[in-house]
Design a protein that fits this description.
3-stranded antiparallel beta sheet, 2 domains, alpha/beta, 8-stranded parallel barrel, 14 helices, single chain
Length: 350
């Protein structure tokens, strides 16, 4: 039976950058899942507008918020030098499109306090956090306002730290998941394939490890593409699974068509964790940009701002080789078509 907090076995990942649109979240709800809007990269006003749109549709939903890292917002002098060197190397890519690179931006906390203030003043049912923990005071304030709080973690240690802050549930992300790693402790969640000695090799193994240490509802994320994947994480102790890559090619997904097409193209044969696009490790299909910039500095979101015009220009030019083609290791199973059909396959006989 689904856990009462979710009332479903499947959550749709909050995919920032335009993928998790209000219509996508509504389609997920209609298909028997639970969708999350993504506040990342949006203004406070844009976040509020999306909340109003989904709320007016009468569907259940959650909101995901990026937690700023104060260390990366105040990079060391050595890191600033690294960023300037990376900016110089990116000039070759910029020249390809006749694009200007912006100066370094080091102060972007993604309107953190403004978004928290809105969520306290106008609560949503579920609030999840990625890239860090919001702090026990924020957790308590959101709970008192009527929201359940979820934290994204990648290891047992991170799970225990989140539990200490009093969160209601955990999104447990394995390294096989597509897009950004939610890791926030040094060395966590950024291994290439999850196969190193002593590391859980599968999402189900990670669930079993954390289940033995933390008594909170667990949502398993990473490599769940079908009913078999869902059954595996449920058997390991998860209450639900979170799907991202499995839904990227859906009709309602707001992902670029170039991205959707790349997931189905035989041209791409592997994924890799890379910091080339944003300065934070994220799993993507390996294209020319990933191969060309294996030494990109890990300073987020400064690198995100540096590469943003390049990614926009690549999209306008129809060039998949310089786009951030986020994908989990199960990307070949991603299906096109309505969300309803994709989720029906995952939820069959549930």
């Amino acid at each position: 039976m689904p856990h009462a907090l979710f009332d479903t076995l499947v959550l749709a990942a909050p995919m920032a950058g335009g993928t998790s649109t209000p219509s996508f979240v509504q389609a997920v709800h209609a298909a028997g899942g639970l969708g999350f809007l993504a506040a990342g990269y949006k203004s406070v006003e844009a976040m509020q507008a999306e909340i109003r749109t989904v709320r007016a549709a009468g569907v259940r939903f959650g909101m995901n918020v990026f937690v700023p890292d104060p260390v990366q917002l105040h990079p060391s002098p050595a890191q600033v030098v690294e960023l300037e060197e990376y900016r110089a190397r990116l000039q070759v890519d910029a020249a390809r499109y006749g694009t200007e690179l912006p100066p370094l931006r080091l102060d972007d906390d993604d309107a953190w306090q403004g978004k928290i203030d809105v969520l306290l003043a106008d609560p949503v049912e579920l609030v999840s956090f990625t890239f860090g923990l919001p702090g026990a005071e924020v957790v308590r304030a959101l709970q008192q306002a009527g929201s359940a709080v979820l934290a994204t973690v990648t290891t047992k240690d991170e799970a225990e730290a989140a539990a200490e802050q009093g969160v209601d549930a955990l999104v447990l992300q394995h390294a096989s998941a597509g897009a950004h790693s939610g890791a926030f402790q040094p060395g966590a969640g950024t291994r290439a394939g999850g196969q190193e000695a002593g590391r859980p090799g599968t999402t189900a193994e990670l669930v079993a490890l954390v289940r033995s240490a933390v008594d909170l509802p667990l949502v398993a994320a990473g490599g769940v593409m079908d009913r078999a994947g869902l059954d595996a994480v449920l058997a390991a102790g998860a209450e639900a699974a979170q799907l991202g890559t499995a839904l990227l090619r859906s009709d309602e997904s707001g992902a670029r068509q170039l991205h959707k097409d790349a997931l189905a193209s035989p041209r791409y044969t592997e994924t890799r964790l890379t910091s080339a696009f944003t300065g934070r490790k994220a799993r993507a299909l390996v294209n020319e940009f990933v191969r060309d910039h294996t030494d990109a500095p890990e300073v987020y979101p400064a690198v995100h701002h540096l590469t943003a015009p390049l990614r926009a220009a690549a999209a306008a030019a129809g060039d998949q080789e310089r786009l951030n083609l986020w994908a989990g290791i199960g990307w070949r199973q991603a299906q096109a078509g309505p969300v309803a059909g994709i989720l029906a396959g995952v939820l069959r006989n549930a």
